[in-house]
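Today's session is about reading a structure prediction critically. Students often jump straight to the picture, but the first step is always the sequence itself: look for stretches that repeat, for charged clusters, for runs of hydrophobic residues. Only then move on to the predicted structure, which in these notes is written as discrete structure tokens rather than atom positions. Here is the chain we will use throughout the hour.
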Amino acid sequence: MAIVRNIGVMRQVTLARGRLAEHPVWSRALARADLAGRVVLPVIVGSAVEDREKIEAAPWLERLSLTEVVREARAAASAGLAGLLLFGISDRKDEHAMLASEPDHVVARAIRAVKEAVPELGVATDVCICAYTAHGQCVLFGEHGADVAGTLERLAAIAEVHADAGADLLIPSGMLEGTVHTLRDALGPRRSDLPIAAMVKLESSLYVTHRAAVNAVPITERAVPLIPADDAAA
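Below is the predicted structure for this chain, in token form.
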């Protein structure tokens, strides 16, 4: 088990085996017996953030600049943690989340900066569009409603940028069917060793603070349904 902080609550994340066990960074974490060695620390990095920025809706959370992300990475490595999980936010949004797949945007830059400063630290990234769309949803829209195919294409482009920047783990979090398959096809044989671990989200108050932190729509307005917290699948 791994316990991570900075998204508003303490969460438990299992570093499962499979591709993770074959990856040079995560295999070391899986071999560790101590709790710290399996901890992944989430951080929110913003393109327009100077230093650290308190989040009004969740004042115990902070958005970080690139410089502060590197500082957190060094601290995480010194504490023996397995890695960071990067969430990006943008000051420029549009209907198609185009900035999310720009090679020089904040998440790709953060990946490169962390890997240069602390190469042994694992870097996982959130692969989603809600922080980059003008409407704050995890799916794109067309003339006839939700454009799942277009969304998957955009997620694939984001995944390629993160992979090229040096990410060690991709975590698509939009809960769209076919996402992992689409990302794996986009990355191709050259990136067959890069783990992809889809995130499952519950309809819970524990998720509210994260939506506020990345300037996405509240969970009650999400176009892609969440799993009810009292559902047997949860």
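Discussion point for the tutorial: The helical segments are 19-22, 24-31, 66-78, 106-117, 148-165, 179-187, 208-213.
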